[in-house]
Design a protein that fits this description.
This protein has 234 residues and is α/β, with parallel strands linked by helices. The chain has a single domain, classed as Ribonuclease H-like superfamily/Ribonuclease H (Nucleotidyltransferase, domain 5). Helix content is 38%, strand content 22%.
Length: 234
Amino acid sequence: MRHLYFVDESGDLGWSLALPYGHGGSSRTLVIAALSLPARDQHRPERLMKELCLASRWDHRREKKWIHAPAKAKLHFARQAAQLAACHPQIRYHAIGVRKADVPPHLREEGNKLYSYMVRLLLAEDMSGHGFVDFVPDARSVKVGSGNSLHDYLSTWLGCDLGVSTSLRTSPTESRTSKCLQFTDMLAGVVHSHLEFSRSECFGILSPQIRFRHLSFIGGSQHDAILASARAML
């Protein structure tokens, strides 16, 4: 049985931190989120996204993204996603967040370097527990020409560092064609809104179901820990 990992981010990979976010400046935090589930359960988050449009009267003609979602849709998503994971524990939510001001220069030089590093910290160990993995990042998150390097990076880490024989298939996909990626975008938005803006109502509802990791850089060395509670702030 193949295991699926859908990955998207919230925030940006820019480094203009002197100006306010949204007024010439970049986001202060970067969040990468993932939805993981057995292939047989893929229909469950897809169904939730379809129902979300009806329940919140969200225009079905628009791609479903957190940034465009009305407040009613955001709350409905948080409640239904929390219930989905509670009823089906094989469906898991993962997220990693970093305060960008703390990121060392060598990880800022090339945008996908930090992205790949965070994806590895977030998912490699979890992936190692499965024989066959489909890794589905949002195609817009992976720069042209770097998709193979991300795949190779994860494959090497799984085979050499973790010593497992996990078979990894990487398929960058446009989120407009995947309701599971749209689900993941909403998940990333829940966490990012909490960290970036302290808008935490949705996070408070969904956080008990999120396996959240805080990435920090202290004294030039990296310290990351899975927090006991995903409610902790960066």
